Amino acid sequence: MAVTDEAIEKIKGMIVSGVLRPGDRLPKESELAAELGLSRNSLREAVRALSLIRVLDVRQGDGTYVTSLDPQLLLEALSFVVDFHRDDTVLEFLAVRRILEPAATAMAASRVSDAELDALTAQLDALGAAPSVAELVACDLEFHRGIVRAAGNSVLCSLLDGLSGPTTRARVWRGLTQEDAVSRTLHEHRAILAALRERDAEAARSWATVHIASVEQWLRSTL
To answer: What pLDDT shows up at residue 101?
Structure first.
């Protein structure tokens, strides 16, 4: 494993230094192994590991390429890791979301377009006053994703997308066990949207914090 780690670091160094750039094809395995002073086996393991986290793209019969290194692509690995959370760590994921999402919502207040606000409003209107828990959770995910996208920061958007996995389960259970969870969520969504329409960043931040904190507080009481 130590040898593979060394190989990974050496390939990473080539990318970070600009020797290999997004879209570049890696030299042949034998050539690259000799250049880096690695065995072909350790190089092969390193390439396999870096392809799993979307740094490299192995194309059968064509070669191995550096990916676009786009943040959204690289952060897909976060979603994979997050799916393995334990029930006792879901609060930690919610805490991170409570830090990041209100900030993103505040950023969106000055950047979200009227068309985007209209789309969010139509989404809430289509949901109705008494949606099922499954419908509410699906809408909640899309609602917040749309707001974070409007903030204009692709890294932040990808990070929050990756954190949605464990919090989704918490929202589902909240909907099943709290009588007022559906109406409260709809009210909070409307309040966030109203703050965004008024371009009030601090009000948007506050309502987003209240919205996430209510899920977190409920979950704390159940653990």
So the answer is: 94
